Amino acid sequence: MAINNFKMNIISSKLSFIIALLAISLGVSAQEKKQKVDGVIAVVGNYVILDSDIDKTTLELKQQGVNVKDVTRCQLLGKLLEDKLYAHHAVQDSIVIEDKEVNSKLDEQVSYMVEQLGSMDKVIQYFKKSNEQDFRTELFDIIKINKLTAEMQKKVVDAVIITPEEVRNFFKAIPKADLPVFGAEMEVAQIVVKPTVSQEAKQKVIDQLKAIKKEVQEGSSFFGKAVLYSEDKGSSSNGGYYKMDRRTQFVKEFKDVAFGLKEGEISEPFLTDFGYHIIYLEKIRGQEVDLRHIVISPKVSDEALKVSKEKIELIRKRILDKEITFSDAARTMSDEKETRNDGGVLTNPKTQDTRFELTKMDPALYSQVSNLKDNQISNPIIDEDRTGGKFYKIVTVTNRYDEHTADYSKDYIRLKELALKEKQIKAIAKWSEEKIKETHIKINGEYRDCVFTNNWLKK
After folding, report:
1. What are 381's strand-pairing partners?
2. Of 15, 32, 116, 340, which is least surrounded by CB within 10 A?
3. String of b and e for 379-416 (b: at least 16 CB within 10 Å)?
4. Who's near 10: CB < 8 A, 6+ residues apart?
5. Residues in domain PpiC (predicted)?
């Protein structure tokens, strides 16, 4: 993985966001200078909320650019009460956040802050803590509570399903004047030609992964090896860590290997569409596993890349000469398994529909198709896959849709998404109402005069 190097005097937006969140939770606040008496203003289950927590939340919102002028302390307390309610019932529902998972995230955040601020001493000074252990202990608790809250919210939302009848009723209930308007959209298809990887290049990666496995078995850190060598940008900085069960969206080959390992075992190198992997199974927890992995893709030669360009140029010429249609060429000659059975038509990852709204389209894709006329095929475009491997493709616009008012038949998938979101919101509201009734909640002092959306005062 390519690790970004920043100048020490430049604070990236990512660091600013992390610091904004941690500053609030770890107590970086002007209120400290005033030595304000910090009392308990609320209790939710086993969690307490301090008066200073509201000041910290205000700071968080300001750091994120939110105008807090019209946000009341009562509203902020309501949000804190919700978060603690989720965390409390996550524990009650036996949702487990392993310390190893929290420590992994903790190490990632601390390492990043040390890299950006210059030293651990500067980090401690910035967050106004006495020593590194105090800083880590408090940050550990924050991360764990946040993870518990997120898991409980996910559990409530994931249980919600929507039926076609519910979608129909949702649509019928919307007054005509209030029907949503969808912007101009298009459907896009592509044909991909990937360069052939030599057997020598494949073997080189396999041998590298075997060597890494041997070094780990002899005492090296899998975490460190993943940071150094893994090409999975989503996990390499966290030592290749993933938590998964059999329902988690991973490719079949990956899950088959993961669930075939014993605790503490490292797999042999194996192949998926992402490259060659090794998996280290850290922990088995019932139906879930904690694992780390390293993925490396074989490198492609310039000659192989040149051959793939020549092949895509020939495919394009055959389509233009009417020898074959674009969709048939995609089905028979495209190297992209995800799209070739659909004639190369792309799926919008945000909506799982085939339509892309122009104003929300990925900028790179938009630049490739925005100037194409009907039935026009782009010149060969060099692109990169999820692992950074280069390939060539051609694209075309298969359908265009003007801005229009929602139509049940044409926009079913979008309407289904809206109906599902509404049902999820109602499910969360119902869950909150029920849990508030059965949970020990106490609100003290002037905050008992607040008017809350939820019945926190149990009146």
Report:
1. 393
2. 32
3. ebbebeeeeebbbbbbbbbbeebeeeebeeeebbebbb
4. none
5. 183-283, 286-381
**The residue type at 150:** A
3-state SS, residue 344: coil
Looking at the DSSP bridge assignments, the partners of residue 155 are none
- Residue 333, domain member (yes or no): yes
What are the Cα distances from residue 229, in Å, to 3, 56, 235, 255, 405?
A: 11, 39, 11, 21, 50
pLDDT, averaged per 10 consecutive residues of the chain (459 residues), comes to: 35 47 48 52 92 78 75 92 93 88 82 80 82 86 87 93 96 94 94 94 96 95 94 88 85 92 95 93 88 94 94 97 97 94 93 89 92 94 85 96 92 92 94 95 93 91
Instruction: Compute the distance between CA of residue 412 and CA of residue 410 in angstroms, rounded to an integer.
Output: 6
Dist CA 438 CA 457 (whole Å): 13
Are 405 and 181 in contact, with CB atoms under 8 Å apart? yes
The runs of H, that is alpha helices, within 324-411 are 326-333, 337-340, 363-369
Please work out, in degrees rounded to the nearest 5, the angle formed at the alpha carbon of residue 416 by the alpha carbons of 414 and 417: 65
Name residue, tokens 């939820």.
454
Overall number of domains in the chain: 3
**Domain stops at, among 296, 312, 343:** 296
* Residue 391 token pair: 């390939």
